[in-house]
Write a structure and sequence with these properties.
This protein is of the alpha/beta class. Helices cover about 45% and strands about 10% of the residues. It has three domains: about 10-115, Fumarate Reductase Iron-sulfur Protein, Chain B, domain 2 (Orthogonal Bundle); about 120-270, Rossmann fold, CATH 3.40.50; about 280-400, AF0625-like (Rossmann fold, 3-Layer(aba) Sandwich).
């Protein structure tokens, strides 16, 4: 291997050298502010030069484009690598099909290994290590959202066996603003007659925030724990309302659970509607659907949420100008809230302005982080658009059938 101590394998290095510097990635980047280090093109090309200068003898490095950087350039580059939502929108617009998302992950892993990263990210690792969630809150409080439900299902927490496990995730478990999502999903699972359980304190962070931070090696303990608990329950299906949890389980857990089907809530709801296990009442509103990055671009799920929404009488579904694989990011990915929260907020406010152009009354998404970001953006921008998760829409519609 050319760089034996680097996180970059040969294919990653070849992809960096394939960059034509056309700037399409920069034009498509929601996080680009005009500052150089928020530009994907700048980040990729400067990082390539720096990495070669670090790993090769000076003469050879000069021949292949390596360049020593000034300390302030290294600092700017390091900050820039973490001023990214990891949404992969740049990958979609790249004319030479560079896997930019893979490069961003490798860059972060390399910088973390060198101790060159925003120290706020240590809080994520500490939270997962100490309390098994990114907030570092007591993990035995994971299912307290059930206490605030008038019609909470009984005996679903910690069942020794069940057909379906609903993996709630850290954000919805601990963020009061969006606990209505797991509450809605739990009620929908009851309505569909599914034998399900919620793992409660036995559910640990899936590890996604660590992978996103370039700290994936620290996720081995939580992965082992979660795998053991799922195997003990013997479930056939795992359902997720968090696309990032869904993606992480498919990429890092699925190979160890060949008999367990991983589905996002929208896929489960689509199937329930098709087989008549869930009735779709009316929802007489004009709705715009926002494709979450980790559900759409990074997991390939586009049709299920739209089919669920189209099945609801009275719902008028309109598409945002940039949707599907070109959908904007909500600003909540890539641990950006930890490294640069103001940038994340600016992105969500900008996207909400784009949604307003559709004339939609309701912005529907299928991600708890997206909903949280857009709720905060609405407080600032006052567009009058209601923000809902698709599970909440399905529940409200079914209640009025």
């Amino acid at each position: 291997m050319l760089f034996p101590e680097s996180q970059f394998d040969f294919s990653r290095l070849m992809q960096m050298d394939a960059c034509t510097r056309c700037g399409q990635c920069q034009e498509g980047c929601d996080a680009y502010t005009g500052e150089a280090n928020t530009s994907p093109r700048y980040r990729l090309n400067l990082y390539r030069r720096w990495l070669k200068s670090q790993r090769l003898p000076r003469i050879l490095a000069a021949l292949v484009g390596g360049r020593r950087l000034k300390p302030e350039q290294v600092e700017s580059l390091t900050q820039g690598v973490f001023r990214c939502t990891m949404c992969a929108r740049c990958r979609e617009v790249c004319p030479v099909k560079i896997d930019t998302l893979g490069l961003w992950y490798s860059m972060r892993e390399e910088l973390v290994a060198r101790g060159m990263y925003p120290r706020n990210l240590d809080k994520l690792r500490e939270g997962v290590d100490e309390e098994h969630n990114v907030y570092n809150y007591p993990n035995d409080e994971r299912s307290t959202w059930l206490d605030f439900m008038d019609d909470a299902p009984e005996d679903v927490v910690g069942k020794p066996a069940a057909d379906v496990i609903y993996f709630v995730g850290c954000v919805a478990s601990y963020s009061p603003a969006i606990q209505s999502i797991p509450q809605a999903m739990a009620q929908l699972l009851v309505k569909t007659g599914v034998d399900f359980t919620i793992m409660g304190e036995k559910e640990w962070c899936c590890g996604f925030p660590l992978f996103s931070a370039g700290m994936g090696q620290a996720a081995s303990e939580v992965i082992t724990h979660n795998l053991d608990k799922v195997k003990e329950i013997g479930a056939r299906i795992m359902v997720f309302t968090c696309p990032s949890c869904f993606r992480t389980w498919r990429e890092h857990y699925q190979q160890h659970l060949p008999g367990v089907k991983m589905v996002h809530s929208t896929q489960l709801l689509e199937e329930a509607l098709k087989r008549g296990g869930l009735s779709a009442g009316r929802f007489p509103h004009k709705v715009a659907y926002h494709d979450p990055c980790d559900l759409g671009r990074n997991s390939g799920v586009y049709s299920a949420p739209r089919e669920v929404l189209r099945a609801i009488p009275g719902l008028d579904l309109v598409e945002i100008e940039q949707h599907g694989s070109k959908s904007h990011c909500c600003g909540g990915g890539g641990d950006l809230e930890v490294s640069d929260p103001d940038l994340g907020t600016a992105i969500s406010v900008n996207v909400l302005g784009v949604v307003r152009n559709t004339g939609a009354e309701v912005l529907v998404t299928a991600c708890q982080q997206c909903k949280r970001m857009f709720l905060n953006a609405e407080v600032q921008s006052q567009t009058g658009i209601k923000v809902m998760d698709i599970a909440e829409v399905a529940l409200e519609a079914s209640a009025g059938e």
